[in-house]
Amino acid sequence: MKSELHPSAVKNFNEKADLLLLELVSKPKVSKQNSESSFKPDIFVNTLITEKDIIGEISISTVDSVGIKVAQYFDSGGRQIGLSEGSHNKLIRLSEEMQRTKVLFNTISVNLITKLIFDWMRDRYKNTTNLSMIEYVIDKCLKELKEFEIWMPIAMTHIQSEIKIGKTVLKTITRELIDQWCKEWQKDYPENKDKIQQIIDEKRKNIQGFASATIKIFAEPQRAYEIAFEEAKKAISLLRCFSPANCSPQIISYCTLLGKENSETETYLITHGNKIHSISERIVDGASRPWFLNNDFISIIKPCLEILDNLLQQDIKNEFQEKVLDSLLLYSKSSLAKDSSDKLVYILVALESILLKNENEPIMQNVRERIAFFMGTSVLERKSIINRFNKAYSVRSRFIHHGHSIDDLKVLEEIMIDACMFFQQLILNVNNFKTKEQFINKIEEVKLS
Q1: Same domain (yes/no): 137, 155
Q2: What is the pLDDT of residue 402?
Q3: What's the burial of 44, exposed, middle or buried (CB within 10 Å: 0-12/13-18/19+)?
Q4: Is residue 302 part of a domain?
Q5: For the chain, which has fewer Cβ within 10 Å, the N-terminal or C-terminal residue?
Q6: Do residue 357 and residue 389 come from a single domain?
Q7: 168 Cβ contact list (under 8 Å, min separation 6)
């Protein structure tokens, strides 16, 4: 891996790391807050970590108000030595520069590089290594590289057959898969067999039978997760373009990575005589419904899925293909939106992103006419589409400029159906144009024919 880095890059990175060594300082003393004036809520503590639970050297970090690490120190003979705020920022920038290189980008995370550079600084300070920073970091990185298969569960989504989209394959988390996990864990810790079964059953409730975006990646664990997260997010978003939620204002899609579905609940306590009488929790959103993709439905959307699958696998895409993907990812957010006004805004912005040449063009006129001539096959159909978009833009204007919510859901429903049909046709045409301008010019030719 080191030999693949350009010699000038190796020299540059090592020089920056050597300069960082000169910025190691003792941790400044911080005055303790008055414990009597500090507010300490009585939060339930589930686990107590003692000195016996600490493995290896202790690293002390300082974080800012939003939880970002801004300083870091290691122990050396009872003193805390490390990088203060300004110097720590240089460490982060160096790590980011290294991670952006072709050699490291797809396999190593910024977090791991940052950790390893700091470990090298500690070891050089303590005279326990003579390696250059690059030699030290690359050697440690190579030991972390493995092939992983990452499974990322999808909320409230069930598939009868596997679906391939780009680098991901959507698979079902089966009972057998979880049973095998349980058996392997119990085999390693037979004394905790019942406890393990209890933990697995608790996990099983949330994932068994649901779809999961899976991807095989050769990388270190953190970078494998980062890549899997991005690829899964894209694949799930594109799949969501075919959700029934795209055609009805009353339906909300929860087809997203598990934990990000934002399914709303309410929790409340009823007390009587200063005693808790009961605790209740209920689902607020009545539109929360699982999405079942059986083989019949999968076969219907298969032509579009195959195009998207091939498109995502292409390392180099033309301008039109990139624009189509961007507009689809925008459009897919509308099905997650709970407020009807938000749905309309996402839909119209997605349409505008692919149907306007630039920001100087009249928006409403061009969007309504271009979608009409792209979709409509007769004068009557085109007039109907233009009329529906006139109403939709009027509704959006009242919402954006005057804060009026959408009370006529019929207008929204008609636009949602138009948009759903438009984007499916757009997918089928994604390989027919090289630029967005070519696509728009073709529609203009139809208008003039």
Answers
A1: no
A2: 60
A3: exposed
A4: no
A5: C
A6: yes
A7: 213, 214, 215, 231, 232, 235
* Distance set, CA 309 to CA 166, 220, 265, 303 (Å): 4, 26, 36, 10
Same domain, 253 and 326: no
* CB atoms closer than 10 angstroms to residue 406: 19
Does residue 356 belong to any structural domain of this protein? yes
CA distance 313 to 90: 35
Q: Give me the long-range contacts of 350-355 (CB less than 8 A, separation at least 24).
A: 350/419, 350/423, 351/327, 351/419, 351/422, 353/323, 353/326, 353/327, 354/323, 354/324, 354/327, 354/426, 354/436, 354/439, 355/440
In whole angstroms, what is the distance from residue 109 CA to residue 220 CA?
8
**DSSP classification of residue 266:** E
DSSP annotation of 27: P
Q: Are residues 6 and 139 in the same domain?
A: yes
Check whether residue 152 and residue 23 sit in a common domain: no
Least Cα distance to 93 among 73, 107, 113 occurs for: 113
Is residue 411 a part of any domain in this protein? Answer: yes
Domain that holds residue 119: 2-28+55-144
Question: Is 420 found in the same domain as 328?
Answer: yes
Report, as an integer, the average pLDDT of 120-124: 97
Residues 79, 57: Cα–Cα separation, whole Å: 13
148 has which bridge partners?
A: 217
Contact 246, 239 (CB under 8 A): no
CB-CB contact of 171 with 212 (8 Å)? yes
Task: Out of 2-11, 51-60, 200-209, 293-302, pick the least confident.
Answer: 51-60
Domain membership of residue 293 (yes or no) is no
Separation of alpha carbons 200 and 445, rounded Å: 61
Which of 266, 283, 300 is the endpoint of a domain? 283
Both tokens of 9, joined, read 């890059």
For the chain, the domain total comes to 3
What's the rounded mean pLDDT across residues 357-363?
92
Same domain, 140 and 153: no
Task: Specify whether 220 is located in the same domain as 324.
Answer: no
Q: Are 414 and 388 in contact (CB under 8 A)?
A: yes
C-alpha 146: how far from its chain's center? 23
Which of 312, 307, 302, 205 minimizes the C-alpha distance to 258? Answer: 205
**32 exposure class (CB count in 10 Å sphere: 0-12, 13-18, 19+):** exposed
Closest CA to 289 of 258, 265, 263: 263
**pLDDT bucket at 178, cuts 50 / 70 / 90:** very high
Residue 80 phi, psi dihedral angles, 5° rounding: -95, 115
